[in-house]
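Render this sequence as a predicted structure.
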Amino acid sequence: MTEPDPPAVSVPARAALAGNPSDGFGGAVVSVIVPSMRATVSVGHRRTSEPIYLIDAVLARPEWGCAAQGIGYAWSTTIPQSVGLAGSSALVIAAIRAMAEIADRSLSDHEVATMAHSIERADLGIAGGWQDQVVQSHGVSCLMEFGDDPPATIRVTPIDTGSTPLFVAWTSASEASGAVHTQVRSVAEEQWFIDAMERSATAGRAAFRALQDGSVHDLKTAIVDTYRERAAAIPLDRRHVDLVNHAHDFGAAANYAGSGGAIVGVLPKDADGFIDHMRRAGYGVHHWTMSSTSDETGER
């Protein structure tokens, strides 16, 4: 008799609140979990979904040995794709955790992040930093400090206060994040860019302190400072700048959530008016109340 497949594994989206993209350059980033946007993977005896290269790459890893032979999988996601909310990393990490259960392997969060980074960056050639794999493997909103030699020098500090109302917004005019990171790497040795990443990292640490202290004003300042450093250092898609400007026009502080075009920020007091404003402009919007735990949803 065939044994039942293990339960599915879900991994949430993430949004980089401040400090990004300094994660690729030894910096510091505050990234938050978007709890009700999730990628879900189950592995076992049956393949019930169309193949996807991300999960195929996970199953091809030698770490699983014979446990991966004849394995099928199913997957689904509610994360908008290719907008900078780490939908790809969510699928990879969910598949790693599902395969670890099949192979009876106990992997730490650090080991999961390292394997996911290797699969995406080395095996699949997707350019990028470390923040996606780190925050999604830990499953908590946190400050990540990357140091000079990641993953050995990565330090993760969970954010232990909640109740901050956040939003993400996105446009259908997405941009492959790998292309952005490749462009960034071409100027990575320039002193002006190094200085910009150091200022971005400073903004990331300031956002962490603001969240810990409950200072919405300081948090908004760190978010906007990060966006300004990105705008000064990286050529931005005009359509994505328009998205940020629409949020700013309503009084919301906003920053790129990643490198695909989605933005993230603190929900203004007139939440309903802001959401209506963004949707009438043609953007997708999702909002929730940040918590100190990874499983809190709180969408209004």
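Summary. The CA atoms of residues 204 and 225 lie 9 Å apart. The first strand starts at residue 9 and ends at 18.
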